[in-house]
Amino acid sequence: MRFSNFLNKIKANFSRGEGAEPDMRFLVTVTAGLLIFMAIVAIAIFFVALRGAEQTMVPEVRGKELAEALLELQVKELYPRIQLRYSQSSRDRGMILEQDPAAGTIVKAGRRIRLVVSQGVMINRVENYVGRNIDEVRLDLLTITAASGSPLLTLREPLMYDFSPAAPGTILRQKPESGADISGPMGIEFVVSRGLDNTLVTVPQLTGLTLSNALELIGRTGILFDFSLRPLREEEKGATVASQNPAAGISVSANTRVSLVVTAPDDLAEGEVFKLFSYRIPQNPYPLPVHLEALLPSGDRVRLVSVDYPGGNFTVPYRLPADSVLILSMMNREIHRETVR
Q: I need a surface site. Which of 169, 200, 208, 210 has the fewest CB within 10 A?
């Protein structure tokens, strides 16, 4: 029976009036059936809703950057509810400080996870910088400026230096002192350690070493050096330290330069260049990490020497293919490059 015919029959039953008892029984039956059908549908919907979404485990996102945390939650089909909060260190900016529920909790997919994200440090008092390295503090002050949008604390230059048993670059004193209130932009002064005044080092044995071995030993001992080249003589080995001054085993002050003479190689291939790299590095109050690297025509990058150097004339012999690029950097910042010709 079509649904339209079914409706017409119901209308006909209502229009008959008296003597329609058989049809009334039909209507009661139909109504009861509809009620039972609706009850079945409601129960089915209830159990589907009760079952809910699939369950998943909350990942550990504390200590991670916000972007990384959001990706991990997305994989688990979880959604963030983000709250911002100042923290105790500028290094925490953009990191997850807290989460709720905790990692390992079993929840339904689609659950919202509360994430407390650091928006950096809110500076209202001067920190205690004594004992920290000046280069690290420089980066911290730049980070604070970027986070606040204004230079609340600026480093007053030039810095003051003093001889001290503390490692070179260590902050000895500061002004204003830690705990001072910051009511507006202000400068801060540091006294930085130069290291010991009378530090002595023992000159290592470099004569007779190949150039590569000599550069490796210089990097370990931290001595200052001046290289020079000369042609190869009879019964000598090429690309080898022929002489040094002062001699090995002598104790000298840490700022003493050791003069080294290196012989030319005896097996220089066509297209190779053997020369002396020379560059004057700005003078620093204490040694800083210096690296000389070579970018080869093949695309490979090799390190020739890595030393702590205070500045001044910096000379290093090299044997490289023509068109290589020499790259000199200080504290991982490039300061000079030149092409090998």
A: 200
User: 31 CB contacts (<8 Å, ≥6 apart)?
Assistant: none
The position carrying tokens 């690297």 is 293
pLDDT in tens, 152-208: 788 988 888 888 899 889 999 999 998 888 777 888 999 999 888 777 889 999 999
CATH class of 55-121: alpha beta
Phi then psi for residue 72, to 5 deg, are: -65, -40
Measured distance CA(93)–CA(284) in Å, rounded: 32
**Rounded CA Rg of the chain:** 39
Mean pLDDT of 274-301: 93
Token pair for residue 333? 């910042």
User: What digits encode the pLDDT tens for the residues 3-33?
Assistant: 555 556 555 555 555 444 556 676 667 677 7
- CB of 66 closer than 8 Å to CB of 119: no
Q: What is the DSSP string of 226-239?
A: EEEEE---TT--TT
Under DSSP, the state recorded for 169 is T
Handedness of CA 69, 71, 73, 78 (dihedral sign): positive
Residue from 333, 225, 228 nearest 277 by CA: 228
Domain parsing of the chain, residue ranges: 3-51, 55-121, 134-195, 200-339
Query: What is the C-alpha separation between 157 and 139, in angstroms, rounded?
Result: 15
Dihedral angle of Cα 224, 229, 234, 237, to the nearest 10 degrees: 50
Q: Could you tell me the CA-to-CA distances from 137 to 162, 287, 310 in Å, in that order?
A: 18, 17, 20
What is the token pair recorded at 130?
A: 């004594």
What is the token pair recorded at 117?
């994200």
Closest-CA residue to 155 (of 167, 165, 164, 132): 132
For residue 37, what pLDDT is reported? 79
Distance separating the N- and C-terminal Cα atoms of the chain: 99
The answer to whether domain 55-121 and domain 200-339 are alike in fold is: yes
